[in-house]
Amino acid sequence: MIRMNNDYHRAAHPEVLKAIEETVMNDYPGYGDDEWCGRAADLIRSLTECSQAAVHFFPGATQANFVVISALLKSTQSIIAAQTGHINAHECASIENTGHKILALEQNNGKITAAQIEKEAAVYYESGEAEFLTEPKLVYISFTTEQGTLYSLQELKDISAVCRKYGMYLFVDGARLGYGLGSCMNDVSLKDFAELTDVFYIGGTKCGALFGEAVVLCNPAIQKRFKSVMKQNGAVLAKGWLLGVQFYALLKDGLYFRLAKQADEYAMQIRKSFEKKGYTFFSDSYSNQQFVIMTDKQAEAFAEKFIYEVDHRVDDTHVCVRFCTSWDTDEKETRELIHSIESI
After folding, report:
1. What angle, rounded to 10 degrees, do the helices at 331-343 and 255-276 form?
2. Neighbours of 289 (CB within 10 A)
3. Antiparallel, parallel or unpaired: β 135-142 and 289-295
4. What is the mean pLDDT of residues 1-17?
5. C-alpha radius of gyration, the chain, whole number
6. pTM of the model
């Protein structure tokens, strides 16, 4: 069986494991105050061309999401997000558990627009800031989205402009940031994220690391006491160097970006093969997640060789199936799937 239902089903890239192995007999300060976290943070500041950024390493993405939002918002402030956004649809009300309301907007291809955000924000900011409404203070988007789609640079600029207009923070969930950056349709850079957002993160768990996310606080105004909120929420790892060494290994010579780009290229080969056979897609994804509409019978046939995820049922006879390439997907696995597509 070939597993293609997610991008975190194997441990870590050999270079990451090698880097960890080389540190096992050394000793380091705890809680992220070590040379590896320092080196990785400096590298991220260099890659983003954002010298004032504060970089913090988290064990996981859900934790990063709720800690960032907890740190930035007061109890009467809320978050604007897509209905399909991870914080709204996949995290068991972790944000609501921090005491914040999510203002969920209709999405198109997993995305929300600057116009939608402005309309939602105006309900509060242009109505005298009514005391019975929460104040929309943060806009949450994902890159890539839950449907594997990308925000263009212009879309990101437009959303950032609305956030600046109303004094809202822009937060980009980057759990799959690498796959977004590696897409053939992408025109956004790490520098762009640093310039246009207040905070974003570089996902490691789904792109070659054992675990970990690198949260980049671009806005100096939100950096003070941020680590204290991390600590309060159990997000400061005692053996923090294990996070720093992984990100340094992935980023020092561009391995992170090469792995993601390769996964995207395999996904495009798979997509083209499905297209040739007349399959349709749930979203216009040009990253590592492909959402294919197929009959129950076709899905059952693919299940003989592949482990995939049924995203949702389309109707009585069709399902939407997600095939997800990963940092570790190889040419042989890709060819096996393409052969099955051509045969079924």
Report:
1. 10
2. 27
3. unpaired
4. 97
5. 20
6. 0.97
